[in-house]
Q: What sequence folds into this?
């Protein structure tokens, strides 16, 4: 009769040890995640109006469906911020670059040539500015047309000129 009790005790001890190790590992991972993410978890960042605006833009639906015979006025209020954002055209190429382009061209996301990387920009510059303008306006590879903005072509050209000046 002592045999079943001893195997049960052994199983319980082993199970407790494994469970304790898993709990300890979870606590270590939680502490590590908190430490790594402390910059984005501060209350100042969460209450920052620009951060809140970015969050709302990221979770906004891609499209709204208008239904015939129903009141679709709520769709107009939802799309009003988009038209206000389209009217917010930067005055200089530097402002435009800092607002939109730096997200990819500052880090090299999706193969975007990093600003200041002469080796990556040399073949592009060899094609001429008109080609750079065309690619920036029409989009190329993973880059959407006009960098995903509704800015006029002149602003896009001004931004390309600024980016080229950074590489020289």
A:
């Amino acid at each position: 009769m002592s045999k079943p009790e001893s195997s049960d005790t052994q199983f319980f001890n082993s199970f407790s040890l494994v469970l304790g190790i898993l709990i300890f590992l979870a606590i270590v991972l939680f502490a590590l995640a908190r430490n790594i993410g402390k910059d984005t978890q501060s209350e100042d960042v969460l209450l920052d109006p620009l951060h809140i605006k970015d969050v709302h833009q990221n979770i906004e639906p891609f499209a709204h469906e208008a239904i015939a015979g129903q009141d679709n006025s709520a769709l107009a209020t939802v799309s009003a911020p988009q038209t206000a954002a389209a009217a917010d055209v930067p005055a200089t190429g530097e402002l435009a670059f800092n607002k939109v382009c730096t997200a990819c061209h500052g880090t090299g996301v999706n193969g975007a040539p990093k600003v200041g990387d002469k080796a990556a920009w040399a073949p592009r510059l060899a094609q001429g500015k008109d080609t750079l303008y065309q690619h920036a306006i029409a989009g190329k590879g993973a880059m959407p047309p006009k960098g995903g903005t509704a800015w006029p072509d002149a602003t896009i050209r001004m931004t390309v000129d600024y980016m080229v000046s950074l590489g020289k």
